[in-house]
User: Fold this.
Amino acid sequence: MEESAAETAGQVTEPVTEPVPVAEEEEEEEDDNDNEDDLAGRFLQLEREQSALLQALPPFGEPVSHVYHPLDYAWEPHCDFVRRYCRTPKRVLFLGMNPGPFGMAQTGVPFGEVWHVREWLRVVGGVKKPPSEHPKRPVLGLTCRRAEVSGARFWGLVRTLCPDPHLFFRHCFVHNHCPLLFLASSGRNLPPTELPPAQRDLLMGLCDRVLTRTVGLLGVGLVVGVGRYAERRARRALAAAGLAVRVEGLPHPSPRNPRANRGWEELAKARLGELGVLELLEEKEGMAAGR
Assistant:
């Protein structure tokens, strides 16, 4: 999960800035309709197909009180994120578990802590309300002032390594195994592991199949699971599909992870160095193009 109960316990706030407009001019003019012939369009179509299958799942039941589907009500900023940063094949896919209430649930972007999404990634778009909103977890979109610790740490590291986000997205992309957020009646985040077994198995099977299609579509050679859950799901899904894709793990930046509270950024940088990702990010543009 992008965020844990430990992250929601405190009122962590982000720097106060003026909200950006819902729409702005792109560097290159884009067609309003998704072009399924380009990579971003095909990826978005895959996600729409996944959304339709998710809608057809039976109700999850106790302990689930509310289910948020950001790829429905936050589709505009999600689509903007994909169209900006998923135009070319990706060698590395960073994989999270599922949205957090102050990350992707607000912005439609994986690990989508609002300040980084709005001010650094420059993602725009209107965010609607979920059909059933928990009073303790309101969706405020890109104007939300609560900061998600996991997302702030993850995108903060990426920003340190690649001051220009396009440098990161030359070779990398970020995705969640499951696009749904589950809340208990108290407002507590429910990880997929706490879902009723029958519904959990249906959901995980569906998400596993979409993950394998995503890896094939983007041409991914390395999946980096952010946290052990995402790493295990990726290994299982890709092995079951017969895909010979390397899967490795990165410590989760959540404050519930004791290691993450003792210098997660340095820990993560060391791990990315071991995996060869730092070297990839430091490639000169001409070298990358020549491969």
In short: The longest strand covers residues 92-96.
